[in-house]
Amino acid sequence: xxxxxxxxxxxxxxxHLNPIFQVGKGGVNAxxxxxxxxxxxxxxxxxxxVLQNCDEDRDDVGVALSKGAxxxxxxxxGNTIVLYKESxxxxxxxxx
Length: 96
Prior knowledge:
Protein name: RNA-binding protein
Low-confidence stretches: none
Keywords: RNA-binding
Organism: Peribacillus loiseleuriae
Number of helices: 3
Mean pLDDT: 93
InterPro entries: RNA-binding_CRM, RNA-binding_domain, RNA-binding_YhbY, YhbY-like_sf
Radius of gyration: 13 Å
Oligomer: single chain
Domain CRM: 1-96
């Protein structure tokens, strides 16, 4: 689990990132979770955008993605979800 200080740090880091995934009409599926898991291994911190045509609630999408990818849900702001997962091979982010 992340502490409040670590979440603040990650939110600041994520501020400049652009969403690299979009959850739309199909919702959360196994393929999306697999791709997000791979992206997290490379980048550690990513943003996911929830589109207007997504049938699921954005909070449910955030929880489903973080559980599926075994990542930390840093923040849900507007229709954007910020996820963090420590990389095994190429650690770039040093948490406070």
